[in-house]
Amino acid sequence: MDTEDPRNAHPQPPQPRQQQEPPGTTRKLDPPPDHGEQSYKGSGKLQGRAALITGGDSGIGRAVAIAFAREGADVLISYLCEDEDARETARWVEQAGRRAVLMPGDISDPAHCRVLVERAVREFGTLDVLVNNAAHQMTFKSLDEISDEEWDKTFRTNIYSMFYLSKAAAKHMKPGGAIVNTTSINAKSPNPTLLAYATTKGAIANFTAGLAQLLAKQGIRVNCVAPGSIEFPGGSWEKRKSDAPNLYNAILRSIPFGRLGHPEEVANVVIFLASPLANWVTGQTISVDGGQLL
């Protein structure tokens, strides 16, 4: 008797065609990745709360913003320069009946990070959740290809910003507040071609565990999600498919479900960590990778 492949319960949608210079934009992806625009249904888990999400214009950040709004939160969307994508995210937030505030700028700048927090508090009257999601990622085949400037940019964007933002946000958060950081499976299984990026992701996991202990006395929880292979604007999946099909297929084979992840699937875990459902969870890293690290 034929048996149905259980992986069919988690089907692989058509993968967006993309080969863009970073930061990349969602509007150029064909078809676009699933941010939960049609599928995510809220149930009031974050009703009346206010959140700041970095990298909220696209990818995981957009999916988190949409989910937060449908769970009842107002959202400040921080992004670098992708205005059209950011406006589209805001449209979905407002469609859910919540407020969306857009702020472009470089989070590697400590002054900008402080302004982001101040703006969120001024607009919403409070700040309950900080999602440190934005990141810079570039691929290099050799150590000599990584310039001093590239190494510095990666660290300032990926980990320095989390320090700046968390320090500013914690001053305004009340007990029950939450910080959710985005690390990566590269924190535990670093890809050598992503040396700078992977190193920052390891630092983020350590930062999260230490910060959770520092802020516990204030009643603030700090956790992180570690996505696996997720489709996102400015990513390299299309390039890998064309330039290194064997590597691309090997990555798919390493994932038990046999497919890339959707941004919405990461957002589901961020919602849990940000909500009262996780009020006894802090200092943890939760992998969202379809079993890839296994």
Walk me through the structure.
38% of the residues lie in helices and 12% in strands. With 294 residues, the protein is of the alpha/beta class. It has a 7-stranded parallel beta sheet, with helices on both faces. The radius of gyration is 18 Å and the shape is globular. The N terminus is likely disordered.
Q: Total helix count?
A: 8
What portion of the residues fall into strands of 2 or more residues?
A: 5-15%
Based on CA inertia axes, which overall geometry fits? globular
Q: CATH homologous superfamily?
A: NAD(P)-binding Rossmann-like Domain
**What is the CATH topology classification name?**
Rossmann fold
Level-2 CATH architecture: 3-Layer(aba) Sandwich
Provide the CATH top-level class.
Alpha Beta
Overall residue-averaged pLDDT value: 88
Biggest sheet descriptor? 7 strands, parallel
Spatial separation of the terminal alpha carbons: 30 Å
Strand order of the largest sheet: 3-2-1-4-5-6-7
Radius of gyration: 18 Å
- Count of DSSP E strands? 7
Give the number of domains. 1
Ranges where pLDDT stays below 50 over 5 or more residues in a row are 1-16
